[in-house]
Amino acid sequence: HLIVCVHGLDGNSGDLRLFRCYLEMALPSTRLDFLMSEVNQADTFVTFEEMTEKLVQEIRHYIEAYSIFPSKLSFIGHSLGNIIIRSALTHPDMRLFAGKFHTLLSLSGPHLGMLYPTSPLVSTGLWLMQKWKKSDALQQLSLHDHTDLRQTFLYKLSKSSGLEYFKNILLVSSTQDHYVPYHSARMEMCRAAAKDSSEFGTIYREMVTNLMAPLKSKTGSTLVRYSVYHGLPSSANSFIGRAAHIAMLDSELFIEKMLLVSAMDYFR
Fold first, then answer.
1. Across residues 234-244, what is the average pLDDT?
2. Nearest Cα to 175, choosing from 154, 190, 196, 156?
3. Torsion of CA 95, 148, 45, 9, to 10 degrees
4. Which helix (H) or strand (E) holds 243?
5. Which helix (H) or strand (E) holds 172?
6. Where does the DUF676 domain lie (predicted)?
């Protein structure tokens, strides 16, 4: 069982190490192999297409170099890493693994982009970062990479196949996390989008339908939404939502409880 761990924006290959440790402890009799992706850690501000190509080649090289023939292939992604994972599923080189996809564990993944943010402060900060870093990825997450919204990367990705090949999809989100909108991490409608009569509202609603329709029509698959509330001290990081976003990676209490009480069963 090969588990590929993909970090988020400005992250590194060690970000998801605690998930590896706790899964290995929780499932000692299960043969688990981990690929801690590092190919994009030097630059996560380029386009998703570039990061996708690098991840797919990293997976292929790992399997060939170590002569691994996985019977199951699972993914754990944090934040932006989940979009790279979903994009990789559509890559021609990944088609031969389609029948082996087992579990996707998504931690604060911006599956519906950064629309309808819960914190004006954070959305302003992301806008400034996008301008300062000239980040193509942040532009794509904001659906500003094309004048026709149906030609944007994220909208086209919502219409692509991939998610329905998994037996289990686990979506983890937190209302305390203002970096990634709660509804986006859960792949669900939000009140602001339901009321929005603009083109962005229409596109958002269509993306929700595009993502959910294949999952609803497939039998034998499991979709679980986890809502997490972290016990965080009052601080500037907590106020802007960064602490909860990072707690998905470094809170041993959260990771231990989530895996040992529930999620580990989806990796057997």
1. 65
2. 190
3. -70
4. helix 242-250
5. strand 168-173
6. 1-191
pLDDT: which is higher, 220 or 90: 90
- Which two three-digit tokens encode residue 17? 């190490």
The three-state secondary structure class of 46 is coil
For the segment(s) 2-267, the CATH number from 3.40.50.1820, 3.40.50.1100, 2.30.30.60, 3.40.50.1170 is 3.40.50.1820
Q: Is 84 exposed, middle or buried (0-12, 13-18, 19+ CB in 10 A)?
A: buried
Per-residue DSSP letter, 99? G
Higher-pLDDT residue of 222 and 132 is 222
Q: In the structure encoding, which two tokens stand for residue 78, read together?
A: 């944090």
pTM of the model: 0.94
Q: Are 23 and 264 in contact (CB under 8 A)?
A: yes
Average pLDDT over residues 29-41: 96
- Dist. CA 75–CA 45, nearest whole Å: 21
Q: What is the pLDDT of residues 192-228, one digit of tens each?
A: 999 999 999 999 999 999 999 999 988 888 999 999 9
Give the type of residue at 230: H
Residue 13 CA neighbour count, 13 Å, CB half = 11
Query: Is residue 101 helix, strand or coil?
Result: strand
Q: At residue 83, does pLDDT exceed 90?
A: yes
Q: Which residues touch 191 (CB under 8 Å, ≥6 apart)?
A: none
**103 neighbors 167 (Cβ within 8 angstroms):** yes
